[in-house]
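Take a careful look at the protein record below. Let me know whether the structure tokens fit the sequence:
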Amino acid sequence: MLTGIARQAAEAGELDELLTDTEFLVRADTQALLPLLARARSAPARLAAAVYRTSLSQHAGAGPDLRRWLLSLNASRWGARQLAADLARPPGPPSGLFPWRVRWATGSQTSPQLRGLLAGHSAVTAVATAEVEGRPVAVTGHDDGSVQLWDLHSDAPLGPPLAGHDGTVETMTTAELDGRPVAITGSRDATARVWDLRSRTPLGHPLAGHSPVTAVATAIVEGRPVAVTGSDDGIVRIWDLRGNVLLGRPLEHPFWDDGVDDVGWAVTTVLNSRPVAVTSSDETLRVWDMPTGEQRDYPGNDALCAQWVTALAACTLQGRPAVITGAGDGTVQVWDLGTGQLSRTLTGHDGGVRAVATTLLEGRPVAVTGGDDCTVRVWDILTGAQLGEPLAGHTQPVRMVAIGTMEDQPHAVTGGDDGTVRVWDLTLGPRIGNPMRGHTDCVRAVTTAALEGRPVAVSGSGDGTVRIWDLHTGVPVGQPFTSHEEGGMVAVATTVLDGRPVGLTDGESGTVWIWDLATGAPLDQLACHEDTVQALTTTVVDGRAVAVTSSGDGTVRIWDLQTNAPRGAPLPGHTGEAKAMATTVVDGRPVVLVGNEDCVVRMWDLHTGEQLEQSLRGHTAWVRAVATCTLDGRPVAVTGSRDATVRVWDLHTGEQLGRPFSTGLAGGPGTGWVNAMATAVVEGRPVVVASVPNDATVWVWDLHTGEQLGAPTVFPQPVRALAWDPGGGLVVGFGWEVAVVVPRPITAPPSVAQAVGRRGC
């Protein structure tokens, strides 16, 4: 019904009005609505369309309640607070979800150029684009050896996957063969295959004789359509696509001393009116004349000496053939094939460049690159300028980029290690919304503090920065703190020294940085460990601020923050790697609890450094989260583990209270495991909030009754950090974002049966 209304509204020019109807957004059919979003014209409608696209992959299988929550959260990420408030008001009775309301959220991973998102059946390993029967399509290769076609207007798959390869599809390109659109795929099964994209059938027999195929390109040689394949044996082969037969002799890359020199990339172009193939291996680019199979020499060398090549594309610049290379150091290099000279270096990626493609944008040659920093960037090749902001949305390295055309505009299709394929409109449109930018990598730690009388949230990220946010408004406070060490922040803690609030952050080299929260200035360093600091917490012992640190070197240490000296030797009895710590008071003694990879949570007296007898034993996998609170006047610990359970413990006795809480996802390594927790009191109820990164959910349990409060709340990206705001909100780190969410009134009554089962609490 709503789909028909949308079509009628679009035909009548009334789609803008419909897109600003929040109930329509909540209930419309996703696949039917998606093609219409591009027709939004007014600023409010374009903003609503951008908000809707932000979590496209989650809308399709979501009911109205979950979609309402995601849309409200994403509207907050776009800075559209009124739209977020309107979306958060359900017209009917409360839903089954735990009732969170968004106070504010950052929008580092929002982009107005996101056009669509393709949700496949298995991990995507290769991407290309084509036009089939007049409509733009994407073609994806997968780790199960299959090939899938997608309609780029609707983001819908075109039929079932094509099965053929017996191994991962490593590389792919598309071309036209005798008027038919085809895809050529290379696989770890040591074959390349040619697919007719109209009939969805293979053409001829596989191109065999390789080791695993790592590169493929196409060209026209003396009037014949050919494919160029490279494999990890260092061999380049040229095939006649009309008969799938090998042309001429294989072309061999020189081997290194260790005998390994695989062909990582291959592209084709025309040089001096001759078709040539450009292939990469190790730190060289080799140019081959395809009719003769001869390698082109350059003055003083037989190959172009580049950085270690991690991506390759060809283009024409001012009438001259050129190739664009990506490198592991984050640079993009432009090479003139005629002279063999490096003509320009583009810098901007923070990490290796893993994919590059070229196109024309408003008549200008541009390069589109993807990298380890999870971003897609667009460059003017002639000037070296980056065009617009990075396209953010991927949460892991971007390894695939292909270019297609929709509605006469160039679009990029990108794939990443996060398992998503995203479609981007490369044209720069007008500004949409007012997103608050922040971190540029995953948020790994959050905590709270008071700064000049106002509550703040503090977040640490894989981007190597710590940022401070006003807890009520989300406005950034001061400048980010950067330790200037390699690697990102894993742990963040706050305390008060000499009357001023300070932050503590871990360092990659085993140090802990101490810095002034008000100014962002570094104050000191603790040379804590011989390996990376894995966990960090603070407390007060004998009126003095102390820090407790754990490390990959297998030690746990206590530090006096007044003198920056260790309090005694490393804590005894510690085994394995510890990534979870919390402090509390038991029988008047300050203690620290440390969760280990050996499944045990150990407790030490911070006065004496002695291990207490109440070790908490019961988990069957690595303990990744520990929180503490008081329950009926006695101290308890709540622990979360890779065994997909949350357990509650009496710290006087070390005994487990009641049954474990289960995430319901235990099904093997890495599924359902808990990695962050926080405890609080909500409407008089003591609760624990836990995150499960595997499915990006946050769970809430009543610690008295053991009752799960509402269904798990789904976030757009995995939640890796939680902290409770003393003012009643929950600080959440998900993906690159920080959000503060506030619980609404809980209406569900406690379960009598579960209350009886946990009356020991």
User: Anything to note?
Assistant: The two ends are 51 Å apart (CA to CA). The mean pLDDT is 88. The first strand starts at residue 100 and ends at 105.
